[in-house]
Amino acid sequence: MAEANTYETVVRDAYLSRLRSVLIIDDEYPTLDGLLQRDCKSNPDYTYKAPPVEVLEIIRGLRNPSELPPLLVDVHDGRNIKLGEEKEIAEHLHQSDFVVLDYFLEPDDPSKSIAILKKLASNNHFNLVLVHSSEDTQKIFETVVQQMLGKSFPVKFNATKFEEAKNIVGEERLELLEENLFSSPGVYLEFRKDPATIKRRAGRQTPAFKYFDDLVSEAALDPKLHFDLLAGLLHSYHAEHSDNMSEDDQFGPVSFGQIDERRWLKLDTLFVGFTKKSNEKTDLVAEILSALMAWNPQPPRLVMRKLVTELDEHGSKAENHALSSTHASAYWYRSLLQTPVESRHAQITETINHYTESLISFIQPTLNQMTQSLLAIDNAANTSQICIERFGVNFENADQESIAIEQHNLIVSNMPEVGDQLHTGTIFDIKQERWICLSAACDLVPEQGSPARKRAFGETGIPFLAVKLHKTDRTTAENDARGKRFIYIKGSKKTEHYCINLPESQNSGWNWHKFIATESGRISKDKRILKVSRIEQADGKLTIQAYNAKVVGQLRYTYASALANELGSKLTRIGLDYTQVARIDS
């Protein structure tokens, strides 16, 4: 990339520099197919509304965009896109990096354009879309965003208190409230953007919320009922419009710009900007760049986007670089073939890591250069202020700094739950107990068991040591995070914190136990179940109890190995009765 001196330069490089094609979908624009069919007399009634010179200017602008390579341009009028027929929609949408979409492909009916957006959002391929129309852009933005949101209402409220509050406020004031709050989706969208906003309205300048506070004060409504009244009213609006919303998490997290500011919408695989059609020459690339800037993508996201685009652009050369040694590749592949089928996962992972590191190293200089550019742009700024601007994180707020530290510790110490084999650092649940496997990795390889081990535990039995974890809180873990005692685990809703011994006593003992993993320590891929047994006491007798342990996490090997070494030192404290002569130096 060229040397960057502004954030906009880096955003352009990350998201637009690799654009190669653009598809314009607009029922008013002439298409090549339509013009050819008309001239061949196969479609003598073919018509279009837009002046050809206007469309020609747009095409010329896209073929010579500022500071970008020329784009391959195609125009489609949307006439043969039929709702519900995925094949026809997909044929025209999976081939372009950038889509310019007219909001009304049929008079006063946005159904087609919204169906196209939803189809693009369900793609695995990332798409940039610019929605344009001669109609009210704010209204279009609000409608599109609302239909992309999930159907679940995001807060709970007391329905009885809601009815009580309505009776106190009275029918006349309720009508005024509903008219003021829901004349457009804006207030509802602000609520969906941050549901907590209805609990802390005092710090916001939204006129509708101020109107609400003034009106309920006038009605002398008990402040304890304010939340339930507002939540109930928003829920009524939600129930009225939820049929047109999307299934929960269908498109991943939905984020969008502030109401009445530069309009943008971001889903997992889709970014949408909104602009107004104009009779004057419009730079469509500049419009989507402006929307991207309003989104303000974070520096790490820009680097990751650059990684993806570089692999797309230079993937063949990077592939050749990764495969430069035929002999090494042959050696790795032979090792895979010689590894028993049930134990190949770890070997496959290691081999893929070799190739991946080599692949990434080919484009590493480009990623380094972009990161250096970002740092140079932000270098003179106050670090706390720049983190607020780029990430929305205020490190001068103690709670936000604690959350940042917690998330850092979680990411660097944990790895995704992949694979189907018990490893050092595998975290699992038995009944209400949480345990972590701390046996050495070499002792967990199924085929490397000694004859003595196989005689004792069977052909598929693997003995291993595990330590019971004790739940604690974020503050306790944070205060001694480097003390080799605390483990961070990603829970269903938030990060969970555990200690390898009693949290309140640094020198307390570790509750360790010997388990036997049956079925060669395999973990089921669907339900993540590990079959284990352990010796327990029941009615004064020792018995072997079998369990279906639920695997809930995997510590990275370096962190698990450090804990395993610590456990080893605790298991090998041998006390000897030697004494020695006290010598007096002359």
Instruction: Report the total helices.
Output: 20
- Uncertain segments are none
Q: Mind summarizing the main beta sheet?
A: 7 strands, mixed
If you compute it from the alpha carbons, what radius of gyration comes out, rounded to the nearest whole angstrom?
A: 31 Å
Q: How many structural domains are formed by the residues?
A: 4
Overall CATH architecture of the largest domain: 3-Layer(aba) Sandwich
Distance between the termini: 74 Å
What is the percentage of strand-forming residues?
A: 15-25%
3D structure, described in words:
- It is a single chain.
- The chain is α+β, with helices and mostly antiparallel strands.
- The chain folds into four domains: 7-151 and 245-296, Response regulator (Rossmann fold); 159-239, no CATH class; 301-396, no CATH class; 409-571, no CATH class.
- The chain has 20 helices and 16 strands.
- A seven-stranded mixed β-sheet has the order 2-1-3-4-7-6-5, with helices on both faces. A six-stranded antiparallel barrel has the order 8-9-10-14-15-16. A three-stranded antiparallel β-sheet has the order 11-13-12.
- Strand 3 (98-102), helix 5 and strand 4 form a beta-alpha-beta unit.
